[in-house]
Write a structure and sequence with these properties.
single chain, 319 residues, mainly alpha, Rossmann fold, Tyrosyl-Transfer RNA Synthetase, 2 domains, 14 helices, 5 strands, 55% helix, elongated, binds adenosine-5'-diphosphate, binds tryptophan
Length: 319
């Protein structure tokens, strides 16, 4: 299957992003033809300064490569390096009714949050449709908030195909249903905007400090601890198999250890899980040229696909 994922680069990644988005995506490259790009044209809708956008783009590339995105298997590029997508975006705009865009939840939510509405924000789903339709993506893994955008992509493609023949593949969304919401240090959903995140790449001391900040119950040391609803337990179990989870549960009930021990244990689990990723990250941070070469290679491959597609589209519509 041809799978396409788009990444909005918006700063430091946390454990919630890792389990909710990155790990499942990296798994996908084992059995699919994966196309992944950093959606910097999309980020422009909310970006306010050039250096942050540029830095976030390269940081996201380094993070994904460090976490196991394999450039031998996966085509990986920066959206603006294949500007053909903007031509398609304009053409698709003609097949997008105003009503369709006016119904977009994501747009309405952003405006409700006080982000000033500009045309790019409004037409964002059309650019997303172009991203998806250009390389004939069959599957698009997304978070729940993005399902509607993939549905809109299908609507736009159907409208086009009805008039001009079967030019576009109709994509399906894929939602990671089994991934629970990962809690942050205060027990609420982990999110960079709530200030409760545990970032993926910290030094060991800072990571322990962050784990120490996790809020737990006030059960005194020496008494059995309840694992249910406990954030340290919930986070630890993400790294454990069934047997190990039961063992941890037993340690909670034994009363021999306190939260301090479990916070240390959680830090070890996180540190261990990311050891290879840290090594790769160190490498890429010192070899930025290689990162740029990987992205250039991905852009070159995507451009070939894009040019072929655009030739068909132009002929079909009479340009
Ligand atoms: P944030 O809330 O920190 O801004 P994003 O909205 O940028 O995170 O999310 C990027 C990806 O990570 C999305 O696919 C989202 O589903 C996933 N994700 C973010 N936070 C969590 C969480 N706490 N639990 C599970 N998945 C998450
Ligand atoms: N809109 C997506 C998000 O905010 C990012 C994105 C842009 C995307 N283009 C895409 C995702 C195409 C999948 C396919 O997360």
């Amino acid at each position: 299957m041809r799978v396409l994922t788009g990444i909005q680069a918006s700063g430091k990644l946390h454990i919630g992003n890792y389990f909710g988005a990155m790990k499942p995506m990296i798994e996908l490259q084992k059995e699919n033809e994966l196309f992944t790009f950093i959606a910097n044209y999309h980020s422009l809708t909310t970006s306010t300064d050039a250096s942050t956008l540029k830095q976030n783009t390269i940081d996201a590339a380094i993070d994904y490569l460090s976490l196991g995105l394999d450039p031998e298997k996966t085509t990986f590029w920066v959206q603006s390096d294949v500007p053909q997508v903007l031509e398609l975006y304009w053409i698709l705009s003609k097949f997008t009714s105003m009503g369709l865009l006016e119904r977009a939840h994501s747009y309405k939510d952003k405006v409700a949050k006080g982000i000033s509405a500009n045309h790019a924000l409004f037409s964002y789903p059309v650019l997303m449709a172009a991203d998806i339709l250009m390389p004939d993506a069959q599957i698009v893994p997304v978070g729940k908030d993005q399902i509607q955008h993939v549905e809109m992509t299908r609507d736009i493609a159907i409208k086009f195909n009805n008039e001009y023949g079967d030019i576009f593949v109709l994509p399906e969304h894929k939602v990671q249903e089994d991934v629970a919401t990962i809690p942050g240090i205060d027990g609420q959903k982990m999110s960079k905007s709530y200030g409760n995140a545990i970032d993926l790449f910290m030094d060991e001391k800072a990571l322990q400090k962050r784990c120490n900040k996790i809020i737990s119950s006030s059960t005194p040391f020496g008494e059995p601890l309840d694992h249910e609803g406990d954030t340290i337990f919930a986070l630890s179990s993400l790294f454990l198999d069934k047997r190990e989870t039961l063992e941890l549960q037993a340690r909670y009930y034994s009363g021999k250890e306190g939260y301090g021990h479990f916070k240390k244990y959680l830090k070890e689990l996180i540190w261990e899980e990311l050891s290879e990723a840290r090594e790769r990250r160190e490498y890429y941070l010192n070899h930025i040229d290689e990162v740029n070469d990987i992205l250039a290679m991905g852009a070159k491959k995507t451009k070939i696909i894009a040019n072929k597609k655009m030739e068909k589209v132009r002929i079909a519509i009479g340009l």
